[in-house]
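Please, structure for the following, as C-alpha cells.
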Amino acid sequence: MTDFQTTKPTKLNSTLIIGGGIVGATLALKLLQANLPVTLIDARPALTPEDWQRKFAKRDARVYALSLASIELLKQVGAWQLISQSARKADYYQMQVWQQDGMGELKFADEHSPTLLGSMVEPLVIEHALYQRLYQYQDSDLLTLVSGHKVTQMDWCGQKIGYQITLDNQQCYQGKLLVGADGRGSFVRQQAGIDLAHLDYQQIAICCAIQTEKPHRATARQAMLPTGTLALLPLADITDEDKANPQHWQSVVWTLPKNRALELLQDGDKERLIAQELASASGYELGHIQQIESIASFPLTAQQAERYIADNLVLIGDSAHGVHPLAGQGLNLGMLDVQALFDGLMADYQRSGGKIWGHRQTLQRYERERRPHNSMMMHSFSLINWLFAGDFARLRPVQQLRSVGVHQVSQNKWLMKQLAKKASGV
C-alpha cells in the first residue's frame, strides 16, 4: 500500500510534468499562464547564470528549425521575445531543396514579398528563454520546479487522485495528470507499459558548424543525395567578426550510411576531411568551407509509441514519437502536441466549471488528433529517405520517376504553397 505521508499536499487539478526540456517547459508555462498548478521535474542539474554564460560563449552546431506555429507558441509563453533580444536566431525566408542525380528543384519563397518561413535557433537559447520565464513563477504557489533528480517510481492512485512519483532523493509529489515529456528513452512510457514501434535507418547524422565562402542569404538548403540528405541551415552571427561579415555560418546535418560516417569520424584528420567532403557533397553551393567547429554525430531512428495515453497519463514530444531529421520537424511536432493537449485540457476544464482535469476522454481526443498526424509524418519522412537514399534509390527507373515527380511539383505553384504551409505548421 502506498504511503502518502511524505507527499506534498495535492493541489486540485495539478499536473506533474516529467522532463524539463523545451516541450515540457513550454507546456508548464501554458498551464501556469492559465493559473493551474504545475510540478516540473528535470533530471538535469539547474544551471547558474555563470553556467549559461559559459555555454553561450560557444557556438552550438545543432539548431532547431522552428516553424511559424512553434514560434507563435513561444510568443504566447513570452519566450520568443527573449530569444529575439538575445540575437541568437537566424530567420530564413527561402528554402531550397534539390537532388544530386536528377532534374528539378524545389524553392519555397515569394520573390516579390519575402515572407518569414521560420527561424533557426540553438536548443540552449530556447531553453534559456523558457527558464527565464519559469523563474518568474518561482515565488508563486503554482509552480514547483525540481532539478537534478530523477523519477525512480510511479504509483497510480486511482482516477480521482492521479499519480504519486518518487524521486531518487525519496521526495514524493502528486498530480492529477502525469505528463511524460522525458525524451526518446522515456521512463514514463516504460513504466506505463506502453510499447514502442522502432525503425533503425542504418544511418548516422554528422552535425557541425561551418563557415562558408559564400553567404547563406537567409536560405535553408537541403540536398537529396544517394547517401542521404545534407542540410545547410543558417546560423546566427554571434561574434563581432561574424557580424562584420554576416551570414557565413551554417549548421550542417549530414546523413550518411553508418560505415561511411564512421570512416569520416574516426579519421585522424577528420576536420579537414569532413570539410572537404561536405563542400563536394553540396556541389560547392556555398563555395569552400573556411572553418569547421563542434563536430558531433548521432544514429538515425524513427519510433512511435503504440499508445499516447493511459489513465491520468499522457505522452508528448519525443517520448511519444521520433522522426527522421530530414525535414527538421521533430521539435515542431512536439510543440503541436503541446498546443493540442493544452487546448483539449482547457476546453473540458472550462466546460465543466473547473471539475474535469486530465480525464481519459480528454486524453483520448488528444491521442486521436495527434497520433495519426505524427504517424503520417514519420512514415512520409521514411518514404522520402527510402526514395532518395540507398540501393533502391539508385535504380535508373526510380531516378527517372523521382526526377519527373520533383520537376512536376516544382512547377505547381498551388502545391508548392500547400507544402510550405504544411511545413510552417499553421
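The first helix runs from residue 22 to 33. Residues 1-10, 406-412 have pLDDT under 50 and may be disordered.
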